[in-house]
Structure formats: structure tokens, C-alpha cells
Amino acid sequence: MSKPRVLFVYYSYTQQTKKIVDAMAEVLGARGCDAELAAIEFVDPRYAERFKTFPMPRPFLEVLGMIPAEFLRRPGKINIPDVVTEAEYDLVCFGSPTWWLSTNVPIKAFLESETAGKVLKGKQFTAAVACRRYWKHNLKTVRRRGTKHGGTWVDGIHFRYQGGQVRSLLSLISYLGSGENRDKYLGVKIPPTNLQGDQLDEARAFAGQLADRLVAGDSRPTNA
After folding, report:
1. Which domains can be identified in the chain, with CATH numbers?
2. Which residues of 192-215 are buried (b: 16+ CB within 10 A; e: fewer)?
3. Contact indicator for 215, 35 with CB cutoff of 8 Å
4. What's the gap between Cα 42 and its chain centre?
5. How many Cα atoms are found within 13 Å in the side-chain-facing hemisphere of 112?
6. How far is CA 196 from the centre of its chain?
7. CB-based contacts of 30: which residues, under 8 Å, 6+ apart?
8. What is the DSSP string of 20-58?
9. pLDDT tens readout for residues 172-214
10. How far apart are CA 178 and CA 56, in angstroms?
């Protein structure tokens, strides 16, 4: 029998989502699956300049500047790696960080593309969300749009950063501007941002569950 093939479609500016994808792909590979990674490139001339460098020179303004694109659901121009269409996949996993309240613009653009329709039709798909606070709408958006393309939703997982609404935002802004975790920002004590070690263990456990489904040939939809 041929190995189950898994495609990871993701966007990752701070590389946190990439850490999740790498951890999951490692587990699936160890369980006998062929895992391919496809990092979406955000090239829209209206927004791409702010994501060219890390850390950001003006993190607060750059983050605020993405609000119109998110809330007005403006489509964004992206580049899709060739690996997405070079094979047929048994499972597609989206690495989808939350921007403000919902799915980030690059992944949303992919889900609106003709390519997504070709890749997802008749296939199982899932999503992993990295976020400060809001994950439900992100997962629901991925699920709704993927199902519209004829895909079968199997499950989803999310990873929240530390801190409440205000302090987690300050932590993220601080990190985007410095590239490191600091104790304070604007005189306010802040928690560390980004993923913690135990969350990557959760990602590996989730990947193991997905591998169980693939090996068993289980294509039944699940709830999230």
C-alpha cells in the first residue's frame, strides 16, 4: 500500500506556526506518512512590505494597519508553492495564525483560490491555530471555506499565548518590535508571548491522532 500523503499549507511571519507544522510533520513522517510543507508567500503590494523584515521597525502601526484588510475581508495576493498541486493528498492541514479576530489574510486568500478547490475536493482537512486569544472564528472560517470546496473536516486544534487581552497584545507588540521576550513594555509587566514547550507536545499528540485516522482509513467528519 502507498503511504498516506499529508500537505501542510501555512503562513508564518514570526515562525510560531512553522514550529507547529514542523512538529506535526515530524510525527506524521515517523508514523509512515509522506508530509509536504507549503509556506504561502504574502506578496500583496498593499501589505507585503511590512512583513519583509523581522523585527518590525514600527510594530504597533504595522499591526493596526492590517485591521482594514481583516475586517473588510479584502483579498490579498499570494504565491502558492508548486508542491501544493504536484500530487494528490489524503489530508490537508492548514497552519492558520489568527490576525485580530479571524483567519489571516494569506490563508484566507488561499482558501478563496481555485487551487484550494482542486486540492480539497473529496479530501480530509484540518487546521492548527496559533493566537493570542481568538481561535474559534478562525477555525470556523477554515472549516466553512474548506467544506465549500468539497473537503471533509476531521478536526482542529488551537494554541493560545499567555496573558489576558491587554497584556498579551502588549507582549506581542513588544516581540514584533524586538524579536525577543521582555519583562516589560511601556512600563507594564508582560508575560512571555509565543508558543511554550508543552504546546508543541500537544501538537505532536494531535498529529498522532491524525496518523491513527489515516492508517485506519477513517474519513468520517468530526466536530470542532
Report:
1. 5-167+197-216 (3.40.50.360)
2. ebbbeeebbebbbebbeebbebbe
3. no
4. 13
5. 14
6. 16
7. none
8. HHHHHHHHHHHTT-EEEEEEPEE--TTTGGGGSSSS-SS
9. 999 999 999 999 999 999 999 999 889 999 999 999 999 999 9
10. 8
Which amino acid would we find at residue 9?
Answer: V
Per the CB < 8 A criterion, the answer to whether 41 and 47 are in contact is no
CB 127 within 8 A of CB 107: no
Instruction: Express each pLDDT in 33-47 by its tens digit.
Output: 999 999 999 999 988
Q: What is the pLDDT of residues 48-105, one digit of tens each?
A: 888 999 999 999 899 888 888 787 777 789 999 999 999 999 999 999 999 988 999 9
Grid coordinates of 61: 502601526
Neighbours of 142 (CB within 10 A): 26
- pLDDT per residue over 162-172, tens digit each? 998 899 999 99
Residue 12 grid cell: 508564518
